[in-house]
From TrEMBL:
Cellular location(s): Cell surface
Annotated InterPro entries: N_methyl_site (IPR012902)
GO biological process terms on file: establishment of competence for transformation
Protein name, entry field: Prepilin-type N-terminal cleavage/methylation domain-containing protein
Main subcellular location of this protein, as a coarse class: other
Keyword Nucleus: no
One Gene Ontology cellular component annotation held by this UniProt entry: cell surface
Lineage: Bacteria, Bacillati, Bacillota, Bacilli, Bacillales
Pfam families: N_methyl (PF07963)
Keywords noted in UniProt: Competence, Membrane, Transmembrane, Transmembrane helix
Transmembrane annotation, as ranges: 12-35
Source species, domain of life: Bacteria
Keyword Membrane: yes
Length: 120
C-alpha cells in the first residue's frame, strides 16, 4: 500500500527543482550582463555625442571670433578652446577639446582641429 502511494504521487522533487533553477540561472545571468553592458555603452555614446556637439559649437564660435580661446564649462563638460596664429600661412589653427568632468577630468572625450584663414 505504501509503495502504491509513492508511485501515484505527482510533482517535482527537490533535485529537479534545483536543476531547473540552475539551468535558468545559466541562461538568465549572461542575458542580464549583456543588458548592463549595452546600457553602459548607450550612456557612453550619449556622452560622446554631447561632447562632439559641444566641440562643434565652440569650433564654429571660434571661427567667427578668434579671441574666444579659453576654458568653458557647460553642464558636466569642460571645453578648452585654443587658437594659434601662423603668420606665414595667414591661417589660424583652432583646437577644441572636450573633457567629462564627473568621471575623469583629465580624460579627453573628443577634440576637433581645423585651420581657418585669418580675415585680416
Amino acid at each position: 500500500m505504501k509503495n502504491q502511494y509513492i508511485q501515484n504521487q505527482k510533482g517535482i522533487t527537490l533535485i529537479e527543482l534545483l536543476a531547473a533553477i540552475t539551468i535558468l540561472a545559466i541562461i538568465i545571468i549572461p542575458v542580464f550582463q549583456l543588458l548592463g553592458y549595452s546600457y553602459s555603452s548607450y550612456i557612453d555614446d550619449l556622452r560622446k555625442v554631447k561632447a562632439i556637439s559641444l566641440a562643434q559649437k565652440y569650433m564654429e564660435e571660434a571661427k567667427i571670433d578668434s579671441k574666444m580661446a579659453g576654458v568653458y564649462t557647460d553642464e558636466s563638460y569642460k571645453t578648452q578652446v585654443e587658437v594659434s596664429k601662423n603668420n606665414q600661412s595667414k591661417l589660424d589653427q583652432i583646437k577644441v577639446s572636450v573633457y567629462w568632468q564627473n568621471i575623469d577630468p583629465n580624460q579627453r572625450l573628443t577634440f576637433l582641429m581645423t585651420e581657418v584663414r585669418d580675415p585680416k
